[in-house]
Design a protein that fits this description.
Layout: E1 2-4, H1 8-11, E2 18-23, E3 29-35, E4 43-47, H2 58-65, E5 70-75, H3 99-114, E6 120-125, H4 127-137, E7 145-148, H5 161-173, H6 189-192, H7 204-216, H8 227-241, E8 250-255, H9 263-271, E9 277-281, H10 293-309, H11 315-320
Parallel strand pairs: 4-5, 4-6, 6-7, 7-8, 8-9
Antiparallel strand pairs: 1-2, 2-3, 3-5
Keywords: Hydrolase
Pfam families: Hydrolase_4
Protein name: Alpha/beta fold hydrolase
């Protein structure tokens, strides 16, 4: 592992944050960041959403450290400082959605090489929730999982869903998969949208935190998804919706003002997940970890109490129980 850039000037995280480069088994280089903690009672593997990057979760790492947990986060392929996958670096793009599991395997190798304390727990947001659900099916070695606004479905009017499928398939299969999805921009969302119109958070200071990071380090920015990404993500979400729930304890958070992911799909998944719990965050938008102090405290108190309660035992124990 080689040291990678880490922007401590904007992360607002615990002391000791750093990042390393690692190369996936297909040659794509990604960046993995960590906030270690002396005497930690475990480590949270934080799977960010689309467009996100390690430093965005510095404040989340501070919240987790205050509750006894170290944190590891990742720049998925095609975003942050990880290798961009097209000549134009701004559209969010992926060849196959399954390629994100290559990133997961590389992240786990880094976590082991760093000696991050176990037990490990998952905290996955938005697209990271889609990647994380698949990773749980593939044996992700965590004791429990928390999701926030997981991308198990995208919020689209029912009448437009067949159109989205047809358009995404048509462009992806005719060599136009590199094009931006309709209604999206090349510019980072937090720079393109005023706070008053945004779908991420109701907290102006947290929105400014995200804007400051992207303005200070434009190389972290990412625009809308490519048509290829849209088509492959729709397929992955549909496949996952038809699979049984993994044998891992789960708590999922969703804001009552969620407008980006499909809340009905989230409710259906939790209803079919034995022992899982859905926490509806009153007044929250898509990023409940990026809301005001009271909401964040509620989310992190609930998540870490859940991790504490599931610290004992192994995945094998749960599967056989």
């Amino acid at each position: 592992m080689d040291q990678a850039p880490f922007f401590s000037d904007v992360d607002d995280g615990p002391a000791g944050g750093h990042a390393v480069w690692t190369t996936c088994d297909d040659g794509v280089r990604i960046r993995v960041g960590a906030w270690p903690l002396d005497g930690a009672k475990g480590t949270v593997l934080l799977f960010p959403g689309r467009t996100e990057y390690v430093e965005k979760y510095g404040r989340a790492a501070a919240d987790l450290a205050a509750r006894g947990y170290a944190t590891l986060a990742v720049d998925w392929r095609g975003q942050g400082l990880a290798d961009r996958l097209m000549d134009d670096p701004m559209p969010g793009h992926v060849g196959e959605f399954a390629d994100y599991q290559r990133d997961v395997r590389a992240v786990l190798a880094v976590a082991r090489d760093m000696g991050l304390p176990e037990p490990w727990h998952l905290l996955a947001h938005s697209m990271g929730g889609c990647i994380g659900l698949r990773a749980l099916h593939e044996g992700l070695p965590v004791r429990s999982a928390c999701f926030t606004g997981p991308m198990w479905g995208i919020e689209l009017p029912r009448a437009l869903r067949p159109v989205a499928w047809a358009l995404a398939f048509g462009t992806s299969s005719t060599g136009l998969g590199h094009l931006l999805s309709p209604g999206t921009a090349r510019e980072s969302y937090v720079l393109a949208e005023a706070f008053e119109d945004n779908k991420l958070t109701t907290d102006a200071e947290m929105y400014d935190y995200m804007r400051r990071q992207t303005l200070a380090h434009p190389e972290l920015g990412l625009g809308g998804p490519s048509m290829r990404w849209l088509y492959k993500s729709l397929g992955e979400m549909l496949t996952l919706s038809r699979m049984p729930s993994p044998a891992v304890p789960c708590v999922t958070f969703v804001g009552t003002q969620e407008r980006i992911v499909d809340v009905l799909r989230i409710r259906a998944r939790i209803a079919a997940w034995p022992g899982a719990r859905l926490v509806e965050v009153e007044g929250g938008e898509h990023e409940v970890m990026m809301e005001g102090p009271q909401t964040r405290a509620h989310v992190f108190d609930t998540a870490t109490a859940f991790y504490d309660a599931n610290a004992a035992g192994t995945r094998a124990d749960r599967v056989s129980a």
